[in-house]
Amino acid sequence: MIPRSAPAGLLLLGLLISCGGRDHESRGDHAYAESQFDAALAEYRLAIGENPTSQLHAKAGQAALRAGQLLIAVDEYLMLAGDEDKTTQAANGLERVAAQSVTSGNHTALQAALVGLRSIAEVRAIGSFARELAENLGENPRSQEALDILPTAAVASSGVEQMDSLMHVYGMVLRKLGRCEAAVPVFESLVRRGRLPDERALRQDGAYCALRVAQTNLQRRLPEESRPWFQRAIDLNGPESNRRAA
């Protein structure tokens, strides 16, 4: 037999949990006002664990940003974006994370913030960080996330030279990931436009990739499919060894 006091007990338990969440939020607000941002973040996250709301995710994101916990800030703003009415607020937060990531040299947080921005706000703000994005990828980028971001960053970039620089990095990422068939047209278009100073490197990268595609087709016993790729390797006028092999 269920005691008559059970519903009242459950109600009391619910009220205690609710009050506990508000206590954590109010303690977080107090810590934030005292510029104790790590403590504020901890309290907001405890409150989220009991009763996740958009307001708490926004507060946690801001506290994480002020505490320098940039990856946590990204997570909180992405959770905030789950509320369709808060997408703009979340995108603003991710922009601030990206800007602080550039200032602090936190490459991982910058890329996470830009991936988040792209997922909720398409090309918004990516152009503002295009140069930093290209520099942060380094000389040998292999990231699938970079592959997703770079074309968007190129379109949103502030000038044609910056756009071509980003597309060059995009072609290099394709090459590193073994996607030479997609990389060759990128290098060919950059050579045709002639806006980058190191045209020799572009021709070399493009010829290498075209030769790789041609040789792969030969190994698959597809000589007719190989022929145009060998010709493209020759037309790109890359290293003598590649032209001779083609």
Strand content: under 5%
Distance between the termini: 87 Å
Fraction of residues in H or I helices? over 70%
Structural class: mainly alpha
Q: How can the largest sheet be summarized?
A: none
Note the run of SSEs as H and E. HHHHHHHHHHHHH
What can you tell me about this protein's structure?
With 246 residues, this protein is mainly alpha-helical. The chain is built from 13 helices and no strands. Helix 3 (54-67) packs parallel to helix 5 (87-104) and helix 5 (87-104) packs antiparallel against helix 6 (107-121). It is elongated, with a radius of gyration of 26 Å. The model is unreliable at 1-6 and 15-19 (pLDDT under 50).
Helices, strands, pairings?
Elements: H1 6-33, H2 37-50, H3 54-67, H4 70-80, H5 87-104, H6 107-121, H7 130-136, H8 144-155, H9 160-176, H10 180-193, H11 199-219, H12 223-235, H13 240-245
Summarize it.
This protein is mainly alpha-helical. The protein has 13 helices and no strands. Helix 1 (6-33) packs antiparallel against helix 2 (37-50), helix 2 (37-50) packs antiparallel against helix 3 and helix 10 runs antiparallel to helix 11.
Name the features.
77% helix, disordered N terminus, 246 residues, mainly alpha, elongated, 13 helices, single chain
